[in-house]
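Dear colleagues,

As part of the handover before I leave the project, I'm documenting each prediction I ran so the next person doesn't have to rerun anything. This entry is a single chain, and its sequence is reproduced below.
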Amino acid sequence: MVRDRRTFLSIVLTALSGWIIAWVVYTLVGSNRTPEVLRWLGLVIFITPLTSFIGWIGARPHEWRLAAASCGALYFFTPFIAARIENIIAPEAARQTVGLHTVYFVSVLICHLLGATAFAWWRGQS
């Protein structure tokens, strides 16, 4: 049971909005991996932890250090986890230097959604 609904909803709603933006950007980029479009894939990796941080700070401004460390860790470690998942599930795609990396980006989106939800639940408990 969540005790602090304001914090929970703030983090969940902002993280969900960032996740939706990331999903839309990923689907709009599609299989187009030209250099002009590749920078938009960086937004897929960056936007959900950023919006989670903004929601956390909006609800509890005094916890900005904890929010920065937690969301920063989510941003930093998710690409490593997603690359490992891709290496296990689709090793032939992981060996390519340039490719679609569908498993990688879907893993990033899933890890960010799970991580942001876990942060919201954690901070909603206290």
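The mean pLDDT is 90. The longest helix spans residues 64-89.

All the best with the project,
I.
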